[in-house]
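Hi there, hope your week has been kind to you so far. No rush at all, and the record is pasted right below.
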Amino acid sequence: MVPKPGEISLAHNGVLFLDEIAEFSRAALEVMRQPLEDGTVTLGRAAGTFTYPARFALIASMNPCPCGFRGTRTRDCRCDDATVARYVEKLSGPLLDRIDVHVEVASVGFDEMLARGTGEPSASVRARVDCARTLQYERYAGTGVFANAAVPARDVRRYCELEADAADLFRVAAARGHLSARALDRISRVARTIADLAGSASITAPHLAEAIGYRAVTVRLAA
């Protein structure tokens, strides 16, 4: 019997959202490592070997601990350090390496939820994103690459070249953060996107610093 495509293939060219990712089994999460790298998933069955497309954007969320209140000011956390360690161990270092951006979101109080938002209008955000995508289409024309995230590792240094001050910062961050080669490539791609969103032709130290900041959660959880 030919196996049916699973969730990561059904999400091909789209988004796979894993809510409460730390509640999934580690075995299930580890299966995603190679598809996140290669954009395909291969299944071996008695009937043969089958390869399905699996190039998707992974978005995931998780609490800081099983009870969800660690680090908050409004409730006391019921989890001890050992419990929290077992909870975050579901996310291995190699899996975290393959997730480009990590953002910590603080809990929002009742009054804050009722307050009217003052953020940037969606229309202006979209215009900036459209400009960045146009830059990427022009940059990779004829290469088969359509976005910074898809730049092959062998071409990262070519398309994500750093200014001198950014390169110096990268060297220090790599040494202090014990970042893998894969993480360094992914930081470079994110920095290239940040520069594109700012309309900058080159990657400067502020662009790189922002990209590195998105790995802070990775470094802490994997420590």
